[in-house]
Write a structure and sequence with these properties.
Length: 224
């Protein structure tokens, strides 16, 4: 970057930097105390960017995603990994008969139904946040960190139930033990992004997020 005179950097960070939060929803000034290697790696880059700004003047923004999900509105781009690790695509695979069941990791968390709670953000709203942050930096804005989420928390059980409704399919659900490094609740306070950059979420509805992902997976299955 320095050799090629790149002067702006937008980093895809994560809510994992907060670890087990002591305040919900989580503001950007919450202590950064990760409880897994993924979160530690994100903090490492955030801190490196801070020092590169001090040393070389590179302006940066860290976008701390909560749970990015869904597919683009035209159905051309969607989410897939090999192996798949994200909750909504995994549940959709079960709904579409691509896997025999899904497993819930932990049913004894201190939450209303015992399963982890997460904040899901549609990728289109996330992409809009990127555009706003890029404009902010290019027009002389200061380096910054922004949470990207809706401030709406849904448990694993709630997401499973919503997928069943959208897909109109039932499938087997296995209840397993907790995984190390999974905080009970991660819900964003995104007021900084809304106030400073006038970010206005348009798709903050779990049913809609799941439907766009489901429609994309169905279309993809037809063409495979």
């Amino acid at each position: 970057m320095l050799a090629n005179r790149v002067s702006h950097f937008i980093f895809s960070s994560s809510a994992a930097v907060y670890g087990n939060p002591t305040k919900i929803p989580i503001p950007e000034d919450h202590p950064l105390t990760p409880i897994n290697p993924y979160g530690e790696g994100k903090i490492f880059i955030e801190r490196a960017l801070l020092w590169y700004e001090k040393a070389h003047g590179i302006k940066y923004a860290s976008l701390r995603y909560f749970n990015a999900a869904g597919a683009d509105l035209e159905g051309e781009l969607g989410e897939t990994h090999d192996p798949e690790t994200h909750l909504i695509p995994i549940i959709l695979e079960a709904a579409l008969g691509k896997r025999p069941c899904i497993e819930i990791y932990g049913i004894d968390y201190p939450t209303p139904d015992g399963t982890c709670i997460r904040d899901y953000i549609h990728v289109t709203d996330l992409a809009h946040a990127y555009i706003l942050v890029l404009e902010h930096l290019l027009f002389g804005g200061e380096s910054c960190s922004y949470n990207c989420g809706y401030g709406l928390g849904y448990s694993v059980r709630e997401v499973v139930g919503e997928v069943k409704k959208v897909a109109r399919m039932d499938f087997s659900v296995i209840e397993g033990k907790r995984r190390e490094g999974d905080p009970p609740v991660l819900v964003a306070d995104s007021m900084r992004l809304k106030k400073e950059l006038c970010w206005k979420p348009q798709y903050d509805d779990l049913t809609y997020i799941i439907k766009t992902a489901y429609d994309w997976k169905q279309r993809r299955n037809l063409h495979m």
